[in-house]
Amino acid sequence: MLDDVVVSSNAGRVKWISRKCAELFAYLLFYLGKRIPRSRLVMDIFGGMHQTNAENYLNTTVYQLRKSLEPLGMREVVRSENDGYALELKDPVIDYVEFEKQVEEIQSIDVSNVERALHIERLYTGDLFGDKAYVWAINEMVRYAEVYTSFVKQLAEVLISLRDTSTASKLLLKLNERNPLDESVIQHLMTIREMTGDKKGLTALYTDYVRLLSRELGIRPSEGLIHQYDMLVSRLTNKK
């Protein structure tokens, strides 16, 4: 479910008949094993449509979902139950569940578990449901993205303390690509530029960020960032 809605087993990969049947699967998976009333599915997935049309569309989508799952022998995992539907899967491996579970298990990152933390970071292959932006999942999509961002920042800090600036920089640049306005990421990247003696790169990074803030938000960087930049440039100048 990270970066896309993909279902596979030893028998192959599901080919969705329609986008809505993929969305319905994602919804039912989110509430795995729980009965979801038809009325709620109509409201959350087909909201905005005329009631009768929405109910008919739900019927069609349930049928399409079962047909999509049939080649993998999974047709029966979508259960009809008391005017609702439930998804029953035996021991599924769900990527976003596994990612959050491992993040919680590691608790804090240090030199003893940094390799494991790097492995966990690689589990997050993209945001929940990718570019689908399902309205009913917005809060959870944001939450998982925040869990990932926080985890990577912690990991980068440990890598910087270990002077593994190359790996830290790669991770931070991934965060910067996701959110170019995140000042704390810029702070870490500036620190790395100073550690590696890259005065030109430090100045370019800071200048680009200042321009971005001015262009997009019409604001200046924080006093803290301005002070950090001046201090790092001074250090590099004094080294010479």
Description:
The protein has 240 residues and is mainly alpha-helical. It folds into three domains: 8-87, Arc Repressor Mutant, subunit A (Orthogonal Bundle); 93-164; 180-240, no CATH class. Helix content is 61%, strand content 5%. It has ten helices and five strands. It has helices at residues 19-30, 38-45, 51-69, 95-106, 114-123, 138-161, 165-178, 183-195, 199-216, 223-239, and strands spanning 8-9, 12-13, 36-37, 78-80, 84-87. Strand 1 (8-9) and strand 2 (12-13) form a beta hairpin. Helix 5 (114-123) runs antiparallel to helix 6, helix 6 (138-161) runs antiparallel to helix 7 (165-178) and helix 7 (165-178) runs antiparallel to helix 8 (183-195). The longest helix has 24 residues, at 138-161. It is elongated. 24% of the residues are buried. The mean pLDDT is 95.
* Proper CATH architecture of the largest domain: Orthogonal Bundle
Number of domains: 3
| Secondary structure: number of strands | 5
User: Low-confidence runs (pLDDT<50, min 5 residues)?
Assistant: none
Radius of gyration: 23 Å
Calculate the terminal CA-CA distance, rounded to whole Å: 51 Å
Helix content: 55-70%
Q: What share of the residues does DSSP label as strand, in percent?
A: 5-15%
Q: Supply the CATH class of the largest domain.
A: Mainly Alpha
Main sheet attributes: strand count, strand direction, barrel closure: 3 strands, antiparallel
Run of helices and strands = EEHEHHEEHHHHHHH
Query: Any idea of the CATH topology of the largest domain?
Result: Arc Repressor Mutant, subunit A
The chain-level structural class is: mainly alpha
- Supply the CATH superfamily name of the largest domain: Winged helix-like DNA-binding domain superfamily/Winged helix DNA-binding domain
pLDDT averaged residue by residue: 95
